[in-house]
Amino acid sequence: MRALSAADYYARQFYRPPNWRYTRAQAILNREVPRVRVADEDPLVLDTVAYLKAERRLRDSNYTELDRGRRLMARWPELFGAYELQTRGGISLPRTSLEAHILARVDSVKVAQRLATEPAVIDLYRKLFYDVSDRLESVEYIAGFVIGPVFQVGLESLNVELLAKYFAYFGGEVMLDTVLFGMTRVNNIKTDGEVLGYLEQTVNRALKQQTATMAILMQPGRFDIRTLIEGYVAIVQLERSIQDGQEEQTWVSGLADILRQMFPIPLTLEQRQQHRTLINSPSGSLPLEPRLQDRLALASGELSVAEVDSRLSTFTLPLPGAGFQNAGDKPR
């Protein structure tokens, strides 16, 4: 039986790195992997090897950046454009926007217009650095392997790239614009008097968006989002001062009070380290919560508060290797 080509192999591999072509080209160039027959190799990988070899030769010959770029662009215009988008500026907004738009299923023509380049450059970038287009229907692959874990991360791990890609994949292009740029429409401010109104509207919208984002991605009990929610409460109260919205005001204000009682805001580095230790390695026992079915039974009246409290108070951990039983049951 004839062996699969390199492209066929990666196409069938679940944990396929999005940049497998570029990684393979680098490995071939550095002689880190054995080469396969030309007929069994991906054509773009071969082109990339030639491009990288030429770029290295020009660099070793002390060509200036301008001279290297002129020669490389003349021979590989699309590859040069894709390589530039990937390698320049580290984790840059253009690259983050490009990859997030791919996750949002935006076609190459529209993405090229936004990045002031050619659709062929975007198509080549997709294949060489972000080969995920045929896996967009697999939530397990995209959310679990490409985007990485986003839910319930700390502020240190929550960055623009994670947010943009998460909301692009699950929310689409419009949601991506909101996360990336906040205000997606250019406002033509004509007078000085309109400046304050514009700034107030921008702050209003940004605070609401940030509050919603934090509430979606973080556990309110583990990460203090009180400041954002308090700001949101103030805005809601202002907007509804002439409307009948008292019930909503009471609910949001009550939520802010609950969060205030749970944890203080860790401001200094020492306080943040103590907070992290308290959450991840508590000295005392962890608080228990009723199971989902118990909460539903409690809400419907099938269980009393006393019964739920009794179950939680008699809960014991199972022995290693044994499964969890109902609260109060002895480990098997």
Give a short overview:
The chain is mostly helical. The chain contains 17 helices and no strands.
Element-by-element helix/strand order: HHHHHHHHHHHHHHHHH
Total helical segments: 17
Structural class: mainly alpha
Largest sheet, if any? none
Q: Give the N-to-C terminal Cα separation.
A: 51 Å
What does this structure look like?
By secondary structure, the protein is an all-alpha fold. The chain has a domain at 208-281. It has 17 helices and no strands. The longest helix is centred in the middle third of the chain and has 25 residues, at 193-217. The model is unreliable at 326-332 (pLDDT under 50).
Keywords for this entry:
17 helices, extended, 61% helix, mainly alpha, single chain, 332 residues
What is the topology?
Elements: H1 6-12, H2 20-29, H3 43-60, H4 65-75, H5 77-87, H6 93-103, H7 108-114, H8 119-129, H9 139-146, H10 160-171, H11 173-181, H12 193-217, H13 226-239, H14 246-262, H15 269-280, H16 292-300, H17 305-313
Helix pairs in contact: 2-3, 4-5, 5-8, 6-10, 7-8, 10-11, 12-13, 13-14
